[in-house]
Amino acid sequence: MENNIFHLQYAMDTFYFLVCGALVMWMAAGFAMLESGLVRAKNTTEILTKNVALYSISCIMYLVCGYAIMYGGGIFLSGIEEVDVAATLTDFAGREDGFEGGSIYSGASDFFFQVVFVATAMSIVSGAVAERMKLWAFLLFAIVMTGFIYPMEGSWTWGGNDVLGMYNLGDLGFSDFAGSGIVHMAGAAAALAGVILLGARKGKYGPNGEIHAITGANLPLATLGTFILWMGWFGFNGGSVLKLGDIANANSVAMVFLNTNAAAAGGLVAALIVARILFGKADLTMALNGALAGLVAITAEPSTPTALGATLIGAVGGVIVVFSIIALDKMKIDDPVGAISVHGVVGLFGLLVVPLTNSGSSFVGQIVGALTIFVWVFVLSLIVWSIIKVIIGLRVSEEEEYEGVDLAECGMEAYPEFTSSK
Questions:
Q1: pTM higher than 0.70
Q2: Rounded to whole angstroms, how far apart are CA atoms 157 and 183?
Q3: Distance (Å, rounded) from C-alpha 372 to C-alpha 240?
Q4: Nearest Cα residue to 179 out of 355, 18, 261, 301
Q5: CB–CB of 236/261 below 8 Å?
Q6: Residues with Cβ < 8 Å from 162, sequence gap 6 or more?
Q7: Per residue in 180-225, pLDDT tens?
Q8: CB of 324 within 8 A of CB of 341?
Q9: Distance (Å, rounded) from C-alpha 314 to C-alpha 122?
Q10: Residue 393: left (phi > 0), alpha (psi -120 to 50), or beta?
């Protein structure tokens, strides 16, 4: 009877991990739709190609070396393909809290859940460098980002290793439940390094500091992408509980789902109100980014706030993202989709607000952790982007940018009946 209970929990936790991983994988579709909706029609095919390609590259690189760097061992070395049932049951039975102890699940499900997080971090980069970066330059960077840069900072955080042998973030009180910093701020740091070297799109800024809005081609797609990301985030945060098979963890999962949804709602409403005050109009793109900002803000700790608290955290994230997008534009940092603001600036806010509800974390730990993640990813990304720039170049030609990177990079248009390269 006892063995049957252990088998059941193993199956339940493994299945829950896989379902949540599938939800996170679906976020790749959300990023693709959001980004393709916020770029101009002549650049749609290329950004869709980037999104499907980066997901595939992430899966391969994390399989080959990323997982081993982040957690030790490796997909081929840690027994993921084969399960020793007797050893698993012995380990389960020997735990102090028995059935109510920690999660226990298939190693393959753990890898699958982790790999879709890597793809999420890389997807953030895609939108920020849109409309002017060479496709193959981006894909070369994706190889290094998903195979080394992200796994290294992940090994210092979720992997529990010392940072370059100097200090341990866990000992300092660093906590990032599902990755406001580890995933989202890391992706934004890589994007910022690329954008700085790449420069702004032609016509975005005038000679006297004017800011010219460049509107997206398909706001219905952008809205659909936001809803897909919102849905996928339940797997992103909910799966990070790691267990479903007892009452305490089931309640925790429910609370995480509730808070994730509440924060997104708070972020959208707050951004919409701020946009109305500042611009006199209900800016849809700001509202969409507000929802995503709320989701990023709560990701660092969605299990301990109350539902009202989560709504307020999301709302503050929604306010921050509007002012951040405006500030970056004034600094002439051209981010077509607002990814650096949503995932980077609000990701930092998400980390810093954790100690308000989680007594196991500290402000010192959160600050040191945020600095560690940002400095590592930004500096390494800047180096890699610079090397790629020297070897093959980062930016398409002025003529190709004018005609659209769809034809230059992919040889086809997404909307051939409605656009013309001539």
A1: yes
A2: 11
A3: 22
A4: 301
A5: no
A6: 156, 168
A7: 999 999 999 999 999 999 999 999 999 888 999 999 999 999 999 9
A8: yes
A9: 23
A10: left
